[in-house]
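USER: If only I could read backbone structure tokens as easily as an amino acid sequence. It would mean a lot if you studied the pair and described how this chain folds. Here is the record:
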Amino acid sequence: MPQTRLTIATRGQGFYEFTDRAHAFVREQGAGEGLLTVFVRHTSCSLLIQENADPDVRRDLDQFFRRLVPAATDPSMNWATHRLEGPDDMPAHIKAALTAVSLSIPVADGAPLLGTWQGLYLFEHRDEAHRREIVLHLSP
């Protein structure tokens, strides 16, 4: 069962597309059919399948999550006690809990069966740059 790890360097909160890298991994395996599992090895970022045509979708989603879970310095977050790693850390954990850390994508004819406008994204929830590791695993 083939597996690889991708490293994505982030520059702060936002979406980082890796669809092409996932397609390349599946293509390199020569698999006809199977299941691609995507897993991120961190607790303050997540994974999304989202539209990759109009960047306004990603901007709106980013703004929605920033409003839903603001920084710990916002008065609405006074209840949060975990603050050791900065005002963006506990909100990052909450956003990761609300979204996915793993995805399953069917593979057919040697390619992930994503829809026409679907892309794979690492959703970074921290303000600072990070190096994030994603595991891709292809099962028959």
